[in-house]
Amino acid sequence: MDASQTPPPPVESAGRTGSRLGKVSELTIIVPFAPGGADRLRAFLKLFGGNLAGADDVGTVHGMRFVCLDNDTRTLFATAYDGDWDAYIDDFATKIPDFLDIIDSAWEGWPGIRSPRRRTTSRSTRSLPRAGTSRTT
Q: pTM of the entire structure?
């Protein structure tokens, strides 16, 4: 890089979980499926033709991806969004809570968006597994 180029912004924390580079944050987690969860997630995604247009209501989302792993026992979820984790998850909780419940009910231990446990499950880095690990509840 020569002196006329601006160095890229540093990678920093996106709040309670994930990383941020400039305005864009990322989160990648691997979680175990609840019994039948892989089939439910596939059916939901098929229903929408793989286009999660409901996520457009959450203005902070750039994209998200689901990958079934280990013979449908776990899923990788990856997303990119603007800003901090708390604002991102609060947007889902207030703008499309039913959508979030349908998707996340495929995951083992998901308490539901309206559960008081949702705050600690969705916001605590201790409750969200890091990539390559799985959560047990």
A: 0.66
